[in-house]
Design goal:
By secondary structure, this protein is α/β, with parallel strands linked by helices. The protein is built from 11 helices and 16 strands. Strands 3-2-1-4-5-6-15 form a 7-stranded mixed sheet, with helices on both faces. α2 (about 40-50) links the parallel β2 (about 30-40) and β3. It is globular and about 50 Å long. It binds (2R,3S,4s,5R,6S)-2,3,4,5,6-pentahydroxycyclohexanone (ISE).
Length: about 350
């Protein structure tokens, strides 16, 4: 058990992501302790809670209101994100919400409005690439300005494989949303227009599902970019960016690991999924979030980033349906998000 100096965290959802966040809090973050978990699946929740003697709730809102919980991680299914984050705001509790912030632009806007009314940032969205060493090194290099300003952004995001049950829109809301955040973060301008095209390479998903999508975009400052979001790469999980700048190109390095020369080939292992590829990023994300809870100075992606990424995703869905380029709705951030903002808004 922990000591009173530790931040008492409650985790909502004990599936893949929630279970991982709970494990990280228990093993990697000295200044936090797992105080509670909430899940409708009590057996699964009890297993996660066992090690630290955390309380188990079936009612997530009751957990948020519990006075023994100081900060909340939301890792339950996407449609529950916005209502739970709103409950956290109502109770003035800091919350790290998995992406997407909401399952619709309107629901995300409600979060932004509620936080703006509170006048204090309590929401962080789980865009973990902002903590990935390869991405951070690339971003810091771009930010030095030594290679000039960004001109073209290129991103790629490949999952090894996926079970049937998803559609082309899911690919945008659930996977491409990371790439949208990445582009906004690197370029520090809003995306103004998007054009999505794609193909099916995995008939098991249904011929109409575009498991490979390419979005081309332009930004308010006249920069351009493209992102390949590919949920069935047939070879492994990979994420990277290349930013073409005025006087050079900055890209993410391959994650650490050995090169093996064998059978007339030199090869490097590619991870199966995001848990192992981004383990370091998740740990750093939670550590820095806990630090920000203690200091009261938020870092990482805020509710505005969560909302803005959904507005862009909405335009991508419109483009998917129309087969043409689509304009992104104009964004007008409340003062809370325009002061000291990382993205030029
Ligand atoms: C998944 O939900 C994630 O958040 C992963 O980070 C992402 O790479 C994957 O494509 C999503 O489906």
């Amino acid at each position: 058990m922990g000591n009173s100096e530790q931040i008492a965290v409650g985790v909502i959802g004990t599936g893949g992501m929630g279970g991982m966040h709970a494990e990280v809090i228990q093993t990697e973050v000295a200044s936090a302790r797992l105080a509670a978990v909430a899940d409708l699946d009590t057996e699964r929740a009890e297993k996660v809670a066992e090690k630290s003697g955390a309380s188990v709730f079936t009612d997530s809102e009751e957990m948020i209101r519990d006075e023994n919980v100081e900060a909340v991680v939301v890792a339950s299914p996407d449609p529950t994100h916005a209502p739970l984050v709103l409950e956290c705001l109502k109770n003035k509790k800091p919350v790290l919400c998995e992406k997407p912030l909401a399952d619709s632009v309107d629901a995300a806007l409600k979060v932004v409005e509620a936080e703006a009314e509170l006048g204090r940032k309590l929401v962080q969205v789980g865009f973990m690439r902002r903590y990935d060493p390869q991405h951070v090194a690339a971003k810091e290099t771009v930010d030095t300005g030594s290679v000039g300003a960004p001109v073209v952004f290129k991103g790629w995001h490949r999952n090894a494989d996926l079970d049937p049950g998803i559609d082309s829109e899911w690919v945008i809301i659930n996977a491409m949303i990371h790439d949208i955040d990445s582009a906004r973060w690197f370029i520090e301008e809003e995306i103004e227009e998007v054009y999505v095209r794609g193909k099916n390479t995995a008939p098991k998903l249904g011929e109409a599902v575009w498991d490979v999508q390419l979005v081309q975009f332009s930004t308010t400052g006249g920069r351009v970019g493209s992102v390949e979001t590919n949920v069935v790469s047939h070879y492994g999980y990979e994420v990277g960016v290349e930013v073409v700048c005025e006087r050079g190109i900055v890209g993410t390095a391959l994650p650490a690991g050995a090169i093996v020369r064998q059978d007339h080939a030199a090869s490097k292992r590619i991870t199966e999924g995001w848990y192992d590829r981004f383990r370091t990023a998740y740990v750093t994300e939670v550590r820095e979030w806990i630090e920000s809870v203690s200091t009261g100075t938020p870092t990482g992606s805020d509710a505005w980033d969560g909302y803005a990424s959904l507005v862009v995703a909405d335009a991508c869905i419109a483009s998917l349906r129309s087969g043409s380029p689509e304009k992104v709705a104009k964004l007008d951030p409340p003062a809370l998000y325009s002061e000291n903002a990382e993205v030029a808004k």
